[in-house]
């Protein structure tokens, strides 16, 4: 196919489309890809070039694209029921998915995640969790209008989720519009305060403790991304922080919300990242990999205690006034159900853990480049920091990798690697090999 094919589509795109997180004044300079089809870990553009999908199409694919068993599940569901409302009605895929999700939920101690509330994407599930936490505080004694958020946090782009975000670049503009929050220090090592993860976690926990001592009575929930602050640059942190946050939430009668949108569904080598610390949150948010990357669907898993507070509230306050037109859409639910079942059958979480180790070994070799200033990884999510090089070093490295057939996305001066959980060893070599060559080229 001639190269002009994508050029023509990009002209039409530029004339009609407004893209997310995009500075349109230089949209075309960044050589966007016109994706035509995909198979497994491969994306094919409209000119017939193929690229290894090194970021799982924005952190969503589990098996890769076009997994036959998931395709079949969606097709079979389509033949029966495309959509039905979840208000005043229910359906088999929604019920079965809730059951399947709960069977995977983290356990330990007395707290049990026992109910599933569906939403449409990561942000809308965060919104639901925030409203649930606030309403729970009303049900159980006193309205607590304050949320604790972490520095460097990212929880989505709707106003509630922006309120609990802590990344200046993404969130500062919208500050006048937001909910009441207080910022706790990040437990991740990212500003060279210390190089020891356990020390960073202990310091951040001490910060959270004093914040809760001051504001605890007003706080309805502490919200965290467990183990990895992903959008901040795959900032990994020590599990001890989560244990401390769980204890502090309990001490002050606040809920702990674990946003597992990025880190859940096997991504960190455990089904849920909360498992690394052996904690059970009051609300657990799942999205992204939930449908294997096929369709938009998210979920808030709530403890029986939270659910029962709504059930036992005065009649006028029992309802959770929240829901979307497409809540638990049957096609989305069928995709998610097939994904979770297949993950169990094929032991994908265990394979992801093994893939993570291999990825870590391969990435370690990149330290031979002077330009590589840091590497972080947990499971199958990693970032390689590259030295500042005038403007947009991360973009330059990703462009050079793309010329070598590997599709990556930068976050500032970090290059993110988040391939499908089922990536094969030879594909892993290809992925890291292309990044290796790209760094060599850009910093030659
Ligand atoms: N929470 C976290 C931790 C995320 O990483 C993201 C998206 N990257 C979101 C929430 C928002 O999800 P969505 O983009 O599906 O709204």
TrEMBL record:
Locations listed in the record: Cytoplasm
Amino-acid positions noted as binding pyridoxal 5'-phosphate in the UniProt annotation, renumbered to this chain: 122-123, 259, 324-325
Catalytic activity: (8S)-8-amino-7-oxononanoate + S-adenosyl-L-methionine = S-adenosyl-4-methylsulfanyl-2-oxobutanoate + (7R,8S)-7,8-diammoniononanoate
EC numbers: 2.6.1.62
Residues the UniProt record annotates as site (Participates in the substrate recognition with KAPA and in a stacking interaction with the adenine ring of SAM): 21
GO term, biological process aspect, one: biotin biosynthetic process
One of the record's GO molecular function terms: adenosylmethionine-8-amino-7-oxononanoate transaminase activity
Residue numbers binding substrate: 154, 288, 323, 409
Residue positions, PTM N6-(pyridoxal phosphate)lysine: 288
Enzyme class, broadest EC rank: transferase
Functional pathway: Cofactor biosynthesis; biotin biosynthesis; 7,8-diaminononanoate from 8-amino-7-oxononanoate (SAM route): step 1/1
Family as reported in the entry's similarity comment: Belongs to the class-III pyridoxal-phosphate-dependent aminotransferase family. BioA subfamily.
Complex and partners: Homodimer.
Protein known as: Adenosylmethionine-8-amino-7-oxononanoate aminotransferase
Native organism: Phytomonospora endophytica
């Amino acid at each position: 196919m001639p190269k002009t094919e994508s050029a023509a589509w990009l002209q039409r795109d530029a004339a009609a489309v407004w893209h997310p997180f995009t500075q349109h004044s230089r949209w075309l300079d960044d050589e966007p890809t016109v994706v035509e089809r995909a198979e497994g870990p491969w994306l094919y553009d409209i000119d017939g070039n193929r690229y290894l999908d090194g970021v799982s199409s924005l952190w969503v694919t589990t098996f890769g694209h076009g997994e036959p068993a998931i395709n079949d599940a969606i097709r079979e569901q389509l033949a029966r029921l495309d959509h039905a409302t979840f208000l005043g009605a229910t359906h088999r895929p929604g019920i079965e998915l809730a059951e399947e999700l709960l069977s995977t939920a983290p356990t330990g101690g007395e707290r049990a995640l026992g109910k599933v509330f569906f939403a449409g994407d990561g942000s809308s599930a965060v919104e639901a969790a925030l409203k649930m936490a606030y309403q729970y505080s009303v049900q159980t004694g006193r309205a607590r209008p304050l949320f604790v958020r972490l520095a460097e946090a990212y929880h989505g782009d709707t106003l509630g989720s922006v309120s609990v975000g802590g990344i200046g670049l993404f969130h500062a503009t919208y500050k006048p519009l937001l909910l009441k929050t207080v910022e706790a220090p990040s437990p991740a090592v990212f500003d060279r305060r210390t190089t020891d993860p356990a020390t960073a976690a202990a310091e951040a926990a001490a910060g959270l403790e004093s914040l809760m001592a001051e504001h605890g009575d007003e706080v309805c929930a502490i919200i965290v991304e467990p183990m990895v602050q992903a959008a901040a640059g795959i900032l990994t942190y020590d599990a001890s922080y989560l244990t401390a946050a769980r204890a502090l939430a309990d001490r002050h009668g606040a809920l702990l919300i674990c946003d597992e949108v990025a880190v859940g569904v096997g991504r960190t080598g455990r089904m849920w990242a909360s498992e690394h610390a052996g904690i059970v949150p009051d609300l657990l948010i799942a999205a992204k990999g939930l449908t294997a990357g096929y369709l938009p669907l998210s979920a808030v898993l709530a403890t029986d205690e939270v659910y029962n507070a709504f059930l036992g509230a005065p009649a006028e306050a029992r309802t959770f006034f929240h829901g979307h037109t497409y809540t638990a859409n049957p096609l989305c639910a069928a995709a998610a159900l097939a994904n979770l079942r297949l993950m169990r059958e094929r032991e994908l979480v265990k394979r992801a853990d093994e893939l993570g180790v291999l990825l870590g070994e391969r990435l370690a070799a990149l330290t031979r480049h002077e330009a590589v200033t840091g590497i972080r990884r947990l499971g199958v999510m990693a970032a390689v920091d590259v030295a500042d090089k005038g403007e947009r070093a991360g973009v330059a490295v990703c462009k050079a990798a793309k010329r070598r057939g590997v599709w990556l996305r930068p976050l500032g001066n970090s290059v993110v690697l988040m391939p499908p959980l089922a990536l094969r060893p030879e594909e892993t070599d290809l992925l890291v090999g292309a990044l290796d060559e790209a760094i060599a080229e850009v910093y030659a």
